[in-house]
Specification:
With 376 residues, this protein is of the alpha/beta class. The chain folds into two domains: 245 residues, no CATH class; 96 residues, D-Maltodextrin-Binding Protein, domain 2 (3-Layer(aba) Sandwich), CATH 3.40.190.10. It is built from 13 helices and six strands. The chain has a four-stranded mixed beta sheet with strand order 2-1-3-4, sandwiched between helices. Strand 5 and strand 6 form a beta hairpin. Helix 6 crosses helix 10 and helix 6 packs across helix 12. The two termini are 24 Å apart.
C-alpha cells in the first residue's frame, strides 16, 4: 500500500505540471514530426532513366536495366529513349528524369556517359545501380570470371503472403522506432526532477514519520514511471502510424521492449537526483544524458560500426554498453521488419541485463548517498 501511495503521489505531480507533460510527450512527438517530414522518401523508388544509344549496340544491356526489380517485383528503372539532347536536359532540370545515359561505341569499347543532378541523392542511388548492372554485364561479355556473388538477405520476417511487404517502405519506417527510445529515455530527467524535489523539500524527513522505507519510496516512483512509459509507447506509436509509419509487427512486443528500457532510465534518474540541487539542474543534466544516448544508440541516424567483439553470433559495438542501443535495434526489428520474439531474444536479454545493472546502481548510490537525509 505504501508503494501504491507513492506511485499515486508521483503520477499526480506529473499530471498537474505542464512542464513535465511537455517534457515527456511533446518533445518526442516534435522529433517524430521532423523525422516524418525529412525521412519520407521511399526505399523502393522506380527511377526514370533517359537512354540514348545512337548505334543501337547495347540493347541487351538496356533490357537488363529494364528487367531489374526489387524483391516485391517493383521495377527499379523506367527507361525512356531520347535522341534530342535539349529534350533530355530539360527533363533533368524539371526532375522528370533522374539520369540521362548516353552509350558510345566509337572505339569499340562501350562508354557510358551519365548526366544528372549531383546534389540529388536519387542520382547517386540510381547511377550506382546502373553501373553495378553494367559492370556485371560487360565482365560477362568480355569473358572475365565472376569472382564472387553478393547475396542479400533482409532482416524482415518471412510471411506466408508473398504480396505483403514486410519491411521498411520509407526511410521514416527505419527511424520512427527511435522516437519511442527517445520518449522512454525522457524518463531520466523526469525521475530526477521527482526525486530531487523530494530531497529539496525535505519530504523524506516527513515521510520518515509514516515509517516509509527507502525501498517503498523508490519502488513507488518506479511504478509511476512505468505507467508513464506505457502511455509514452502507446502515444508515440499511434502518432507514428498517423504520420505515415508502416507498422509490420506487434505493438505488445514493442511495449515489452519499452518497459525493459524504462528500468535503465529510472535508475539513471535516481543517479542524477543524487548530484543536483534543484529541478532545473535535474532537467538539464537528465536531458543531456538522454540526448547523448539517443544519438549514440543510432536512433537518430546510423552510426559507423565500431565492433569490439562478437557474442553468440551478434556484433557487439562500443556503444552497446547502453541498453538504448539494443532496445532500438529490437524495436526496429519488431515494428519495421515484423520480427517475432524469437528474432529479438538476444537484444531483449541484453537490454534487460544492462537495464537491470543501471537500475541497481542508481538505487544503490541513491540509498547510500541520501540515506542520511532520509533517516535523519
Amino acid at each position: 500500500m505504501k508503494i501504491l501511495f507513492v506511485a499515486r503521489k508521483s503520477l499526480i505531480e506529473v499530471l498537474r505540471e505542464i512542464q513535465l507533460l511537455a517534457l515527456e510527450l511533446l518533445l518526442p512527438i516534435v522529433f517524430l514530426g521532423i523525422t516524418a517530414a525529412t525521412y519520407n522518401s521511399s526505399l523502393q523508388v522506380t527511377y526514370s532513366i533517359l537512354v540514348n544509344d545512337p548505334q543501337n549496340k547495347q540493347s541487351e544491356l538496356i533490357d537488363i536495366w529494364q528487367a531489374a526489380q526489387y524483391s516485391n517485383g517493383r521495377p527499379i528503372f523506367k527507361i525512356k529513349f531520347v535522341d534530342d539532347a535539349q529534350s533530355a536536359e530539360d527533363a533533368l532540370k524539371e526532375k522528370r528524369a533522374v539520369i540521362w545515359v548516353t552509350i558510345n561505341n566509337q572505339s569499340g569499347i562501350p562508354d557510358l556517359n551519365m548526366r544528372g543532378d549531383a546534389l540529388n541523392m536519387s542520382y547517386y542511388r540510381a547511377s550506382a545501380l546502373l553501373n553495378s548492372l553494367a559492370r556485371r554485364y560487360f565482365d560477362r561479355e568480355s569473358g572475365r570470371p565472376e569472382l564472387f556473388k553478393l547475396k542479400e538477405e533482409s532482416l524482415k520476417a518471412h510471411t506466408a503472403s508473398p504480396d505483403k511487404i514486410n519491411g521498411p517502405q520509407t526511410m521514416y519506417d527505419l527511424y520512427a522506432p527511435g522516437m519511442i527510445v527517445l520518449a522512454i529515455l525522457m524518463l531520466i530527467p523526469q525521475t530526477a526532477m521527482l526525486v530531487s524535489r523530494e530531497i529539496r523539500w525535505k519530504t523524506l524527513r516527513r515521510l520518515r514519520l509514516t515509517r516509509l522505507s527507502s525501498f517503498d519510496l523508490l519502488m513507488g516512483i518506479s511504478l509511476s514511471q512505468l505507467v508513464v512509459a506505457f502511455i509514452q509507447v502507446l502515444v508515440i506509436f499511434l502518432a507514428a502510424v498517423w504520420m505515415g509509419f508502416h507498422n509490420q509487427g506487434s505493438f505488445w512486443l514493442a511495449l515489452l521492449v519499452g518497459m525493459v528500457l524504462s528500468f535503465s532510465s529510472i535508475g539513471m534518474g535516481f543517479l542524477v537526483a543524487c548530484f543536483v540541487e534543484n529541478d532545473s539542474q535535474a532537467a538539464n543534466v537528465g536531458a543531456t544524458i538522454t540526448m547523448l544516448q539517443v544519438f549514440l544508440s543510432g536512433a537518430f541516424y546510423q552510426l559507423p560500426p565500431m565492433t569490439m567483439f562478437r557474442l553468440a553470433g551478434h556484433q557487439i559495438d562500443i556503444f552497446d554498453i547502453f541498453p538504448a542501443t539494443h532496445s532500438f535495434l529490437a524495436l526496429q526489428q519488431v515494428l519495421t521488419f515484423g520480427n517475432s520474439l524469437s528474432h529479438i531474444t538476444f537484444r531483449l536479454l541484453a537490454a534487460l541485463i544492462i537495464s537491470g545493472i543501471y537500475f541497481g546502481v542508481g538505487v544503490m548510490i541513491f540509498q547510500k548517498k541520501q540515506m542520511a537525509t532520509f533517516s535523519g
